Hints:
heterodimer; A: about 120 residues; 11 strands; about 55% strand; B: 6-stranded mixed sheet; about 0% helix
Amino acid sequence: GAVVSQHPxxxxxxxxxxxxxxxxxxxxxxxxxxxxxxxxxxxxxLMATSNEGSKATYEQGVEKDKFLINHASLTLSTLTVTSAxxxxxxxxxxxxxxxxxxxxxxxxxxxxxxxx
Amino acid sequence: SQQGEEDPQALSIQEGENATMNCSxxxxxxxxxxxxxxxxxxxxxxxxxxxxxREKHSGRLRVTLDTSKKSSSLLITASRAAxxxxxxxxxxxxxxxxxxxxxxxGTRLTINP
Lengths: 116, 113
């Protein structure tokens, strides 16, 4: 079946540095990709929606200059957390919507970010 | 939450009992989906019910949808210890002019052996 690959699965970075998380659709072209953040014992909060070749649409309260999203191709979207702070430590999950029947949405395995 | 509420927030039952979780949402939807998540892991898609459907079954899972009340329920029958996880509903619909998948707050289900 369709697979969405997310990398890295775990990353530790120093406060003030930037870190990039990749989300790839492996066997389908993703017209739309979504990025979520999840704090421990909480639900997934939609951060932004990205469409290939256009600017991402950010949800209310999400800083677009801090969470840079690029969707340069139909199989790759990246989330860059800039000038990371310890409060950015979280589980980040991407999902991709394919163009098949029902426009099924597939999720990546998630990336744990720890900022020290 | 961004879209709606789930209740209960936490549910603890004995193995073999049935577990029912409820989800309410706010906007019109194309479909509603239920997901499962084990602690610290990714999401597992359980079942999708379309807006024109009222009930759907998959193995030990039964999902209902009431679009007039903007609510859905997930029933897990004959629960097993391995069903212990968090369960989320997610609505696939148009929100503020864009098509999105938005999650409820989730229910933490614990099955006691």
